[in-house]
């Protein structure tokens, strides 16, 4: 079955190239971005300013070839793309938790961002620790992997 | 801009109706489900079994009318749909963190599920507390709201 998704806004960030974009937002608290929700959706932002953190959903619009299992930014061993956050995946949907600094009408200023500049936004949900934190969760294969520079030529 | 999303599998759960479906999975650890990833994507699951928790992305295929700001399951005051997890939203994409009990090839047995039976799956990502936990995050307007029965006739 196929579904159609419509862009609802645009994410702007300091990261113009994949190489400059951090692996995860939590690694770069200084990454500032701006989320422009299209004005026709402004009403859908009501009370979002009560949250300190929000989750952005977007399209990896510059992702490369989809390979189902491959080495990742954090590991040279192959992992299935559903076992990693790799951008080149069937249905290239990205998810980033960012800090909401300020809302002005349909514009959100955010920090801790790890998204490429000019990325199509498709949804926003509040980050709610009450619902989203799992105290007993492990880090799977990511445990102990150092946040490192992206390996050369690795999509 | 429009994007096309393709179903990659199906989520099965004990919840046949919206009324029976819990508000959040964390509220019903006993909710058992089965995720059948289509066999052609099995390779994309490699090493997923190293994670205790995974994030399911799916389509709210039985959601009602999209109203940009509305009362929610947890509150009788209106909130913008981007400030809530409400299923009736522009681009009806759902996200649920579930506990991965077991993988057998392309079949995942999960618990803590809050998804309607027979829901189209569109992506899976690992839940990684190292990346996904924000210690200083607040609960926004959700703070102090009791998990309650879904109000009658509320979509």
Give short descriptive properties of this protein:
homodimer; 155 residues; mainly beta; Elongation Factor Tu (Ef-tu), domain 3; two-stranded antiparallel sheet; 3% helix
Strand order of the largest sheet of chain A: 2-3-8-7-4-9
Tell how many strands the DSSP assignment of chain A holds.
9
General shape of chain A: globular
Biggest β-sheet strands, sense, barrel of chain A: 6 strands, antiparallel, barrel
Distance between the termini of chain A: 28 Å
Strand content of chain A: 25-35%
CATH homologous superfamily placement of chain A? YaeB-like
Number of helices of chain A: 1
Question: What is the chain-wise order of helices and strands of chain A?
Answer: EEEEEEEEEH
CATH class of chain A: Mainly Beta
Characterise the protein shown here:
Two copies of one chain form a homodimer. By secondary structure, chain A is mainly beta. Chain A has one domain (9-142): Elongation Factor Tu (Ef-tu), domain 3 (Beta Barrel), CATH 2.40.30. In chain A, 3% of the residues lie in helices and 34% in strands. Chain A has one helix at residues 129-132; strands spanning 2-6, 9-12, 32-37, 53-59, 69-71, 78-80, 93-104, 107-111, 119-126. Chain A has a six-stranded antiparallel beta barrel with strand order 2-3-8-7-4-9. The first copy, chain A, has a two-stranded antiparallel sheet with strand order 5-6. In chain A, a hairpin with a 6-residue loop joins strand 5 (69-71) and strand 6 (78-80). The longest helix of chain A is centred in the last third of the chain and has 4 residues, at 129-132. The relative contact order of chain A is 0.30.
């Amino acid at each position: 079955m196929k579904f159609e998704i419509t862009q609802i806004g645009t994410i702007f960030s300091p990261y113009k190239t994949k190489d400059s974009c951090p692996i995860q937002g939590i690694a770069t608290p200084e990454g500032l971005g701006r989320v422009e929700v299209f004005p026709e959706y402004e009403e859908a932002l009501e009370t979002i300013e009560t949250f300190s953190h929000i989750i952005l959903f977007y399209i990896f619009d510059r992702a490369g070839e989809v390979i189902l299992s491959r080495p990742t930014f954090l590991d040279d061993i192959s992992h299935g793309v559903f076992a990693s956050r790799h951008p080149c995946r069937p249905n290239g949907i990205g998810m980033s938790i960012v800090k909401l600094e300020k809302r002005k009408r349909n514009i959100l200023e955010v920090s801790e961002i790890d998204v490429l500049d000019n990325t199509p936004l498709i949804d926003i949900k509040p980050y709610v620790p009450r619902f989203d934190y799992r105290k007993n969760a492990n880090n799977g294969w990511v445990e102990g992997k150092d946040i490192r520079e992206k390996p050369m030529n690795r999509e």
